[in-house]
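Folding problem:
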Amino acid sequence: MPRRASYSLKTIQALPAQTAYASEAATRRQIDAAEAIIAATDASTQYALEETLQRIFGAEVAAARGEVVTGRALRADLSTLVLDLSARIAMSPEERAGGASTPENLARELGIASKTLQRWRRAGLCAHWVLDGGRQRVEIYRASLERFAEQHPAEVARARNFRRIDASERCGILDEARRLLESGSSLNLAAKELSARFHRSHEGVRLLLLREFGVRASTGRGVIEHSGRLAERAWRLGVDPAKIAARVGRTEPLLRALVDRRRGELLRGVQPSWVDLPTFDLPGAAETIPSAPSVRKLHPLGLVDGELLAMVESARAIRRLYSTDARAANERDETRGAAMHYLLRRASRAIDALPRWPDRTALDQIETDLRTALRLRALLIERAMVIALGRADQAIDTGTERLPADELRTLVRELSWTAQGVVAGFDPSRQRFDRAASLAADYAIAKLIPARRTPRASARHAAGVAMHALKEVAQWQAIVDPMGHHAARVAAAMSEPKLRDAARLVARRHGFCGLPPRTMETLAGEDRTTVALMTRRMRAAENQIRGV
């Protein structure tokens, strides 16, 4: 039996349990309605989930109110829903034209792999639990397969016409590849020539040659790229570039250039998203937006992360402390949100303009912009989490901290994801941050904690509930924030006489302890020294914090 597809939409995932007592006739109507919607769904279109589910179940689904989903995700989850609903009723192979068969048998009939059928199920091919030969198992009706083939003719034809490389063809490709490689051709160029000659894909032939011959030791480009990756990792760990150059057998200027090229490659994979605001193109925006007081002072609210009970209590204390500061908080949120989007836009455009061998100053400016945007995003997510935990306190009579440990972790994890989504799409010109965070939190809480008809005993957590909810706020965080996991160490070192100077320098560079991140050129100007000397001081300070 193939692996059942998982749900991506939690609202649909909860429906089988909520409709467990529906009659067989009602379940069959729901299955037919879901299959009809799958057939009419366009993968690239947005759909209102509430209206779609009302057409299937004949009643409003409160948890789906206001939720908009893509056709691709809706089609995949409805196919899984059809499979789950069919497990409650006795469906027979003969009740649809052409009968039904297992995915393995159908794959053999079509001459395709069974994994291809699994992939098609995510694209809308419905499977059902069928009572066949006295046992219930997952089968696919041929009528469903024919309907899928009519809607996706190109994909079905491509799968049926695919043929694997047999033994004789493989020997011929490898013999020709040996001849080309011995004549001096690179492995990639040999694969390109052989793919055209044998009518195979370039990537398929290239992988075959890699498995057979591996990476050739004479390929200078591969050696240089390996040296660049090794040098960049060692450079981020604070190793002296002269030692790295001696280790990889390269000159120090070349090694520094390789490190910069590798930094540029990593930045090209960041691809940040932002909200474009009209104020970004006004004269003086480059100086005004990033230099606002709330952008230069990055002090967190103090929400505890790592232990959920302490997080809930700290959120309550923060709300009590700032309860009369709503207007100032909204202005601060708008300013930080606008600055975050502006810095992300500026960094993204600078990344697109990077040459193959980028300038070190440009890389430093990009990483500093992204690091500042990261700090602003963390502050906004912290603020959204304080609001979200307040909404949870209002929704749960016994108190958020009295939930069972698993439910509490699930709730905080969902609220953290919701807060990150609110911050990523926050438009200061159209919405208030506190209202957007409250509304999104209410939706998340309503899905996870439905109203209970009978009171439930409160859970007690003598040992606390350990969990980090705010550890990572962006996928590209590790690329631009290599010292991020040392932030607590830097804050503690501020009070240690031996480490105070080093901690202060690292905090100014990376944006810890409420300070904004700075480029190396800015630090050198503030301390009236050269960039080269400041770079050496910074490497020594970072190594001192690391304990090297």
User: Anything to note?
Assistant: The radius of gyration is 29 Å.
